[in-house]
Amino acid sequence: MRFHVIAAALLWAAFVESRKIRGISSSYKRFYRERKSFLCIDGSKMIPFEQVNDDYCDCADGSDEPGTSACPRGRFYCTNLGFRPHYIPSSRVNDGICDCCDASDEYNSHVRCQNTCWNLGQKERAYVEGQMKTLDEGLRLKQQLIEEGVLLWREKQAQLRELQRAAEDLQIKLEEHRRRKHEADRLKEQTLKALKAGDKGLRHQNGTVSHLFQVLDSNKDGSISVDEIKAKVVLVHDEKRVLSEDEALTLLGGGHQMDLSTFQNTLWDVLIQGHDYKIKDAHSAPGGLMSEDPHLKAADRAAEWEATDLKKVEEAYETVNMEISDLQKKLGIDYGTDWEYLFLNGECYKLKVYEYMYTLCPFNMVSQKSTAGVEVSLGKWGMWAGPPKNHYSQMVYENGEPCWQGGSRTTTVTLTCGTETALRLVKEPSKCQYTMDFETPVACQPVLKQRGVHSEL
Hints:
Layout: H1 2-19, E1 37-39, E2 46-48, E3 75-78, E4 86-89, H2 117-197, H3 206-216, E5 224-225, H4 226-232, E6 233-235, H5 245-251, E7 257-258, H6 260-265, H7 267-273, E8 277-279, H8 294-331, E9 349-353, E10 356-361, E11 365-370, E12 375-384, E13 394-398, E14 410-417, E15 422-430, E16 433-440, H9 446-451
Parallel strand pairs: 14-16
Antiparallel strand pairs: 1-2, 3-4, 5-7, 6-8, 9-10, 10-11, 11-12, 12-13, 13-14, 15-16
Helix pairs in contact: 2-8, 4-5
């Protein structure tokens, strides 16, 4: 009697095991409740329930054979308790290769698979735990960078206001210096006209006569010679021609020399009237009559000083306006909702890959430099290009140097969460199209932490 009870129990267990629906997830179990008939999940056909997992494909969608390899479109669900569940093609069921870590796909084959799900789950849990620690630290650092970004933004705004005030002050100074230079130029012009016209008796002042005599008397022997006349006096209408000796003698009144007294009564009037003869470069060259006049020299110095001062103010005004323009351009960039990416502007990050050194200067440019020293632009700052839910996860740098196949080089930079700010990876997946992985704490998102470790683990 006892033997019969044990045999019946074993037969029942075998029957239950044979009726077990393998290869389905908990969300699909409602379709496989045992009843008289089974409706294919795509609704295309009704079959007796006994034909489920009978190793013959009845349904077009393969739903009647989740636990066998009968259907070409079938899928087998690996439960993988302790690790991540997943689907495999049903053609891999009982094929002698262990695909599911819980060995459920080889329930009726000669292979004896080990259940490795727990070990795999432990490794993944350790990895996820490490990632969570990194995320925690990244979020802490991100908060610091947000606070620094806000302060830096306010600093830049204050700097801009200060530069704008300086520009306004320089604008006032510039107008004043332009006025003063105009006055100095006008005074110089008036002085020059007075000298030319002989206003206020300058023509006949002994000091002027004496000075002109000294200009002509090169060897300072108290008299003017024929050679000195030829060296210093020219025709008004032909300045390049050297006077002949006869012309020089005529100007000296027929003699070979002329003293100051004779000069004042004869040659002085000829030269100062300037109808036919004049002193060579008398209006401009050092040592000339007008350039040595004390009034003109003073006016000329004043004009030069004002011109120098004006130039300094103009340069300062131009520099300040360039700084304002650069700062406005810098502040016009989108640095994130809390200006957390502002600290990257002005920084550059490098990574050597084989024979190339890659440089990323966020919000500026990307370049590639060979060991031979040849540097190529891989793009200039373009825009943020992340998806709507994570807009600040990708940068695009465009309009780099032209590629030999046509078009220009571009670089897409993907920002990833990390505790350091560094360039981690550079690839060229297609010709002249580059990708970079850039790690930084500001890329860490709280939403990642909210998801936590996968519940299946």
